[in-house]
Design brief:
- By secondary structure, the protein is an alpha+beta fold.
- It contains three helices and seven strands.
- The strands form two sheets. Strands 5-2-4-3-7 form a five-stranded antiparallel beta sheet, with helices on one face.
- The relative contact order is 0.24.
């Protein structure tokens, strides 16, 4: 699985095809048509250097997109509610991401495109060295990096 993901990522770096930009360098991550996204889609991006480690340690992985700088996990809409995602992570509502030619590097075996957000949140906190924090309603929304 990881070998396949790496070959897709390296292919994305060499690709000369234009991305489907929606303005200001933003693209919407395109889900495979066979998958059901009934909960809406957001995306969580982390620096590419954490990508393989996160993917190999998550209990279940949905769709994952990557470009040279970031790996993006598809999560249900609203997965940022009451979670203080580390500053190294980027949360993108509607899966509109600041990426250059992101490519699908992992597609799940089932019909749902989602990575469970709580395990992803905990793993992102672990790899970035940030203590997980849940914000009370109306509380601070960002955890500072160490």
């Amino acid at each position: 699985m990881l070998k396949n993901a790496m070959s897709h990522l390296l292919g994305a770096r060499r690709s000369r095809e234009p991305g489907c930009a929606t303005g200001a360098g933003m693209v919407q991550l395109p889900l495979p048509p066979a998958l059901s996204a009934s909960l809406g889609c957001d995306a969580v991006g982390v620096p590419a250097r954490y990508g393989f480690r996160l993917m190999s340690h998550l209990p279940r992985t949905g769709c994952v997109f990557a470009d040279a700088d970031r790996w993006w996990w598809i999560v249900p809409s609203g997965s940022d509610l009451d979670l203080d995602w580390p500053v190294q992570a980027a949360y993108a509502r509607g899966a509109y991401v600041p990426a250059v030619r992101p490519r699908l590097i992992h597609q799940p075996d089932n019909r749902t495109p989602y990575t469970p957000p709580i395990p992803l949140f905990l793993m992102v906190c672990q790899v970035t060295g940030v203590t997980p924090s849940w914000a009370p309603a109306g509380g601070r929304r960002v955890v500072s990096a160490p």
